[in-house]
Amino acid sequence: MVIHSDRTQNLHRYNTPTSSDIAALMIGDGYNIELLNRDILLRSHEKGLQRISELHPSYDPLHYILLFPKGDDGWHADIPLNESILRTRVTQMQFYSYRLQIRNGNWIQSAGRLFQQYIVDQYAKIEQNRLNYFRGNQSKLRTEFYQGAVDAIHKGDHAIDIG
């Protein structure tokens, strides 16, 4: 990415950064996105190119080889959760919250900028999957009803009269 600066408009806007921040760029408007844009492509001698989804347990160890040299599985949808009656599977947020906890023997926090990149990547992955859920489950969420309520309030109806 190249940023072309024009210092004539605001002298302080394009100063050299003084911190080591990391950011995620999530391309698209939330509707017209390519669902497979974060996948990993592997070339196998026998099978040719093979696509590994970001939801596959091997995504994290394949993408962050230095952080997971033993090939520890990443999050996948079939991790059981024993502590809850309402939810039977571990969410991505729960999995990565556990993985990022500071514990003896968990040296992932000492990986510097690679660790920062890993955190931002996992955050972007969690948020993208949340958006995918909302997009794919509009009928369950009854968003048409909510939009009708918002339209009625903007039109001037009182919220108590809407129901």
Entry summary:
This protein is mainly alpha-helical and 163 residues long. It has one domain.
Please give the number of β-strands. 2
- What are the secondary-structure elements, in order, as H or E? EEHHHHHH
Q: Averaged pLDDT, please?
A: 79
- Number of separate domains: 1
Biggest sheet, spatial arrangement of strands: 1-2
Q: Determine the number of helices (DSSP H or I, runs of at least 4 residues).
A: 6
Which percent range fits the helix content? 25-40%
Q: How far apart, in Å, are the first and last alpha carbons?
A: 50 Å
Radius of gyration: 22 Å
How would you sum up the global shape?
Answer: extended
Secondary structural class: mainly alpha
Sketch the major β-sheet. 2 strands, antiparallel
Strand content: 5-15%
Q: Runs with pLDDT <50, length 5+? A: none
Oligomer: single chain
